[in-house]
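Notes from the 1:1 (GR / supervisor)

We went over the backlog. Supervisor wanted to see one worked example end to end before approving the batch request, so GR pasted a single chain during the call. The sequence is below; no edits were made to it. Supervisor asked that the structure be written out right there so they could see what the output format looks like.
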Amino acid sequence: MTPKKVYFYPLLLVLFIFVIDKIACIPKFREAARRPYKSGQNILIGFPKVWEETKQLQSENQNVVVVTGSSRSDIFHEWESIPVNKNTYSKPIYFETRLALKASEYFLYYLLLKSMIDSGFKPNLMFIEFSEEMLNENNVYSYKTKWKELMLPEDVLMDIYPVFNNKYKFEILSRLLFVSYNYHIRPIQGITNLIKGENANDDTYFIALSSYLNKKRPFNPNNVGIQIDQFTPQEYEDRIVKYSKGQEELLLSQFILSDTEVGFLKRIIDLAEKNNIPTVIWEPQVHPYYQEKRKQITGGNLFETISQNIIDPNSKNIRKISLNHGNTKCKIYTDSSHVSPLCVPEIVDKLLQTAKDIPNFQ
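Structure output shown during the call:
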């Protein structure tokens, strides 16, 4: 084999990659050759339908509150209709709770709320959960997990680029330069699907997830938690001590405050400010045992220190409240990290009372 031929093969490989990448720019081929959608991608794809539904509710004179958060906000989704104290708020109100996603964080919330704005829907009020666990760089459910699931279009990649650290900025640039890399293009799959007239197959589990998101899940009245002073020794060990340990291992292990997650929380606040959306940033209550354990790891009081840095004290749109200062009457817990869905009416009342101080909220 001559030296010229040896040098020729790498050039052919580069040319092949270049051609495949350019072909991947063709939408029809990209849909046939891309990787199947994963959980986070299906959530993003499914939400435009949600925004259309909420716009319809507003047109029927319903005031819509968008609830965004983790499993601690998911309890809102367990009420078909949340009872509201008429002395606090007397207008017709609907709580859009499908943004309360378990095991999630601010990167995904930002993408969902940006899709909301891009759809032309503006809620009457937003509840944004603040939980210290979501700010851990080493949380097993951090932005790193969601990043692996997502194939984002070029305009979104450019929008989020400034928020990420250098490692992920390089990753974004790679995805912008090579469409085939961004969409995990499989050439043989693409050709085969084009011949069959098909697109990439998506996991039916995640398609089912979309329909799951469309339904409220009324709580089981026989399983709504235990009063704080009524745990048996075994229940306390299982639901409080052991559950706390599990939370520490999953969500608080090697705790490092994530500049990226804080950056996306700041982006959410900026989104609310720019679009004049009344917003309450709130910290859910947790069991005192877990609260103390968490404080030993994070240093505690992150809600106050971070919110002071990213919320304008003169804001006409943003207010904040922590429910971890003994300022709630409901003390029913399903475990150390979550209050009972029976606490939701009181939580809603606290958040609406806080919202009444926002000049733009009516």
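Supervisor's comment: The radius of gyration is 23 Å.
Batch request approved.
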